[in-house]
Structure formats: structure tokens, C-alpha cells
């Protein structure tokens, strides 16, 4: 694991060095905006990755503690099949978005680069740096998505186990205590990394806005074209934010589902107490002691979309 961590950090550091090397010439404006965006993505990915792997001597890192909670010997066999099914599909989505972004970046680089040998080397270095930065960012955004898939799978399995083991309310209450503890502790471990991933597309949009405002002679269409591959990569974190909102939705629907079962089978006082306990537990995904729902996560997407529309209108105005 230490070897993998070292290799990943070296790759990120290499991509950041390439971008800083290409930005060293203040007179070179061709592709300069793309280099700045790739540098921001690489830096944010490195910070998020270090947050997951950093650990105080004698304590586990955020990734280790989260994995230990999800790999609980009693809970894991109950939801692992559903978790793997969802995570497999999420992995394919992330791989497809990464491939699509690299293909789009390749097309942009080939279209904008010249035929000189120095331009070709610079374009190859930019493309390599983007592939590394985009791959690291995609993998980093995939990790919270896998955690959210596990949390949603726990709640879904609990609703089905309530039907199969409706008389064993003591065991069901113990299972729910474990589920809500896992939900809170895993969310607490992921909060700094998730915050960095969420701020990255916002920083990129703000950077583009500043470039358009400060550079009156810039090629606005070229800048928006260079921004397109980067926005494709950021669709992965938006997908993860929507899945986090789904965790809250599954918990809210759980009590409704259990109440419908209770009404169908006749009134059961012990089952009613369990449902009331689940409802008052307020289990879900918490960031900085605040419960995060789909509406809160969608606001991040609204900010990014609004920023892109503002950039588009500014580009049209400059043209």
C-alpha cells in the first residue's frame, strides 16, 4: 500500500511539475488557461488523497477507519452483493467519463497545437499531465461514491430484512444502531476530502471567469473549448453528490415503508416503537454536524451550471 501511495503521489507531482514548467514563460499564452486548470485539478487531487491517507502515529487514516467500519464481520455479508453491484456500475461510469475527457482533451490539443517539434512536445506534456490529473481526480471522486453506495445498500437491505425477520425486533434495533453509527462515522471521515472535491469545479469556473475578465484580448471560444474536457471529469463528483442525497432519501422512505407493513399486518406495539426509534435517530450523511440531503447537494450543481452560463454569456460578449 505504501508503494502504491508513493507512485500515485509521484505521478501527481510530475503532472504539477509539467504544468509549472510550461507556465514559467509569461509570454506564452497558447494553452496557458488549460495548464492553470490542470494544475488546480492536480493540486486539489493531491490534497484530497493526502487527507484520506494521512494518519497520526498510533491511529488509522480516514481510508483505513472507513474501510474497517464497512468491512464489519456481522454487517458486510448482509449487503455486500447489492454494494458490489452498484459499485461495479459506478466504476464503469467513472472510467467512461475519464476516457471521454481524455479523448476530448486530445482533440482540443491536436486542434490548437502547431506543427513545430517544440509545440508537439508541449502538447504531449499537457496531454500526459491532464490524463494523470483527471485519472487521479476520477479515482478520488469514485471513493466517496463507493461509500455512499455501501450506505444506501445497508438501508435497502435493512428494509428487506424487516420483512424476513419481523418478530426479532431486538436484533433489528441492534442492526440499526450499527447502521447509523457507520453512516455518521464514515461521513465524518470523508468530509474534508468531499469538500475539496466539491470546491474543485467551483474554483475552475471562477478561474475561467477571472481569465475572461482580466484578459480583454483572449480567445474566449478557445478557453471554453479547453474547459469542456475538464467539466466532463467533474461530472463524476456531481454523480457522487446525487448518490449522497439518495442515502437521505432511502432513510426517509424507510419509515414510510415500515409503517405500511405495520398497517398491513395489524398493529404491533413493539414494531411501532422500533419505527419511532428509527425516525427519531435522524440517521444519514452528515457534514460538519449538518445533515446533507439531495436538495443541498443539488445546489452545488446549480452554482457550477450558473457559472458556466455566465462564462458563455461573457464569451459571446467578448466575441
Automatic annotation (TrEMBL):
The keyword Iron does not apply. It comes from the Eukaryota. The chain crosses the membrane at residues 6-24, 36-54, 89-111, 123-143, 194-214, 300-318. Keywords: Membrane, Transmembrane, Transmembrane helix. This is Gustatory receptor. It comes from Polarella glacialis (Dinoflagellate).
